[in-house]
Fold this sequence. Notes:
Elements: H1 5-28, E1 32-36, H2 43-48, E2 51-55, H3 64-67, H4 77-87, H5 92-96, E3 99-103, H6 107-116, E4 122-125, H7 135-154, H8 160-182, H9 193-203, H10 209-228, E5 239-245, H11 253-261, E6 264-269, H12 289-298, H13 309-321, E7 326-332, H14 336-352, E8 356-361, H15 368-381
Parallel strand pairs: 1-2, 1-3, 3-4, 5-6, 5-7, 7-8
Helix pairs in contact: 1-9, 4-6, 7-12, 8-10, 11-15
Amino acid sequence: MPTELPEKFAEFGEARKNGFLKVKKVKEAGGKVAGIFCTFTPLEIMDAAGFTPVSLCGMSGETIPAAEAHLPKNLCPLIKSSYGFAVSDKCPYTYFSDLIVGETTCDGKKKMYELLDDIRPTYILHLPQGERESALAEWTAEVRRFKAFLEERFGVEITDDALRRAAMMRNEERAQRMRLMELQKQTPPPAMGLDMYKALEGAGFVFEAQQRIDQLKSLCDHIQEAYDSGERPVADSAKRILITGCPIGGVLGKTVKAIESHGGAVVCFENCSGIKAAYQMVNTDDNDIVGAIAARYLDIGCSVMTPNSLRMELLKKLIQEYNIDGVVEVDLQACTPYTVESHFIRREMDKLNVPYIALETDYSESDSGQLSTRIEAFLEMLG
């Protein structure tokens, strides 16, 4: 039976390509644009202030040489790529940004933001990086400072009602993202992981909230309808793989594509563009809506936290729910928090008797063959 599934996936790829023109239209209509980098950035605050948030994370090695004129070579490729796009004026999103919002999630990004401030006004959110009693109070105060800054700097009033509406809309989007990812719990999964990831990533470049939600819902419906009609894009024999670690948008070909070309199927993305930052919801019934927003974001189990029990607990839960055969950690070179934490992840996987491999890479193609060989051997080991 014919299916519209490939076309539906393609919509999200086109959304990314057309995003530049859409942002230009936002500006021409008098709207405000905020460039962001991290899942800790409280989107509801910017939504309620009338901003269109857009990711500035670089996913290509193209601009790294330009960045290395100012940044050290032994720095995370995502940081260098992001700064390179800004300093070389090759990123329309940076060009159109009224404000860049950074956060203190790693030392490399913190210092890079100082350089970015010479290009566009940059506001830094100071994130508590540990599980301690004062963390939520500190982070809530930081979110309130951010709200006050936007109100004063841009002459807007951010009301509780606007925040509550924004939180409800973001919750609905997260629910649809989770629904999409949870389709992969089926055996065999109804979609290739590479297509799934590109759709999740592409949704971030659909700037109208209701349109984002409707497109995600439509994609979920089409995938399930195609599956129910007998479509099986993934072989029954494919090993079910969970991806964890750093943001992987710049290394998809060397990792996810390689896994799926060697007989695996990525059924779960725990990392930034996947479940890690999608399953938490804002309690929109809370009388203190700013506090509820802050609490939701502090519940993200990123490796910058020390200790980071949230990530460990989430991984154990996902391994069981998605019937995982093996875990692949993808870490970007010079990302100290993740590369160090991989020791603890490996130890936990050993306890669970779950096969695990850690891959450290950058945005170049020089290690593609080596990674492919290691991935192939890992999948063969799974039997």
